[in-house]
Amino acid sequence: MTQIIKKDHTWITPISELHTTRREVESAVLNCLCREICFVEDFEKIRAVPESEMRRVASIVRLPYNLVRTIITRFLVNFVYFRRFLRSHKFTYDYTKSLRKLRIYLHRLHRLVPVFSFSRARENARILKNILDKRCFLPQFTTQLAVVLFVTDINDQSTEKNIIQANLRLLCNCSAYAFHRTRNKIGIGSKNFYP
Fold first, then answer.
1. How far is CA 4 from CA 10, 11, 12, 67, 189, in A?
2. Residue 143, number of CB atoms within 10 A of its CB
3. Which of 121, 27, 39 is nearest to 80 (CA)?
4. Residues near 181 by beta carbon (within 8 Å), at least 6 away in sequence
5. pLDDT over 90 for what percent of the chain?
6. Domain ranges of the chain
7. Model-level pTM greater than 0.85?
8. Can you tell me the mean pLDDT for 6-21?
9. How far, in Å, CA of 186 to CA of 160, rounded?
10. Taking the CA of residue 161 as centre, how many other CA atoms within 13 Å lie in the half-sphere pointing to its CB?
């Protein structure tokens, strides 16, 4: 008599149950990429993500490798163009002082990399501008972007891991010196900071 062995497929979750829209799939992949893998080379350059790390992201997010590779490559290409724009654009004093411009760039960054709560980031931007005005301190525009994203990510209770700081600074084209100087000047600690 032969025995029939049944395979247990309960641990495999179809893609449709995990994510319903294309935006959710991209958000899950990029969220995992920014929190798990550092895509920064020396001297703050963007490096290509190796195949092994893409496979690791695919296994964490439980999506097919080809889909993850497509999303990551498209993100890196768009990110290179966005970073070139940030590096070549000269932000004036009025531009740097404007809360409206900061919100516009937060929205652009959120559309490129949806790894933070945009509504909370807008509120944090308003609070940051008030703090900077009270202290008569006005850092570069890209540094303000990086600090807002940092505070938003630290206070996000829905995620266990924070975005890797090197990735965060690279996303905003902010130097490590300017980022940490601004954090220290404002008094933002690494944990339990509620503006």
1. 18, 20, 21, 35, 60
2. 22
3. 39
4. 139
5. 47
6. 15-186
7. no
8. 53
9. 25
10. 10
